[in-house]
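Support reply, case 0932

Customer input (verbatim):
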Amino acid sequence: MATAAALAGAMLLAHPGSAVAQEGSPRAVATAGDTVRDSYAADAQGRRLRVRFDPGRRLHLGIAHAPVIEGDDLDAQRWQIDGGLSWRHVVDFEDEGIRWKLEHQVLDSAVAFAGDDTAVDGELYALRFLRWSDDGSITLPSTPPRRIGFPFGIGFEAGAGRVDLHQSDGWRGEIGVARAALLLDLLPRREQGSFLTIGVGPRYDLRLAAEDAATGTQRVEHLVAPFSQPELTWRQESGDGHHAFEASARGGYVWTSSAGAGAQAAAHARYEVLALAVNDMAVTLGAELRWRWDRPARPGEAEHEVLGCWGLRLGAPLD
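Our regenerated output:
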């Protein structure tokens, strides 16, 4: 099923608005997302103003103050610029009462500056797929196929090209080569934007130590988390897109090529609220808090790090 979902997602990206059909199954209609009714309202002078927004379908650029605590040290002079593209859409199997919900994140990244230190954080591409059924069921691929009751939504997510690097005394940090996870949506909904998922899957990262000044070499470690770090994610959006909240936490075992068995944990929470709109582009205020813990610690860094940021984002709608 995951393979079929990934293929469908690829076809929809290549041919947005087209229909996808499977032999022997009902016709699936691809749409760009839930229709936003009454997106515009008129003021006293009769001018049309946008009043509803979709935070999952936009091109955004932002600036934020981003202080960080590493170990016992506080760096309050950091500023960051962030940007990225978000796109989500659905595929409806109307005769079966099934909806596929797909979310894509492209070049979701931030660059932070503080004195001689430059930090880069982000991911090249991420995909989340969730399946919703109006009767709360899943289909077993038997002959003939059988449908059984199942109260949760199911899905998967995948990502590639994640970076978390610092450049104070040479580049150091982590590069996420690839990750994937199977998901259960504990509060399945037909609409996009709000969910509560628990997932687990494999992850492969590279860890870079600072370059050795004497030898000019840089040590590279391999990190593998083989279905050993379950993750809980909660996202909630208001119907008009004016408010969006997301929080996640993960932790568990990790294997490193230098130290063998180790442990990792990470969490983040972010809230975004619409402040005003300029020519249909949303200006939002946002605040985020992130925490990570690594044992053994990353080379040249403390075991734990806390990062906070608050600032403005300008979002251009993609509808």
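We compared this against your earlier run and they match. Two observations from our side: The two ends are 29 Å apart (CA to CA). The chain has one helix and 22 strands. Please reopen the case if you see a mismatch on your end.
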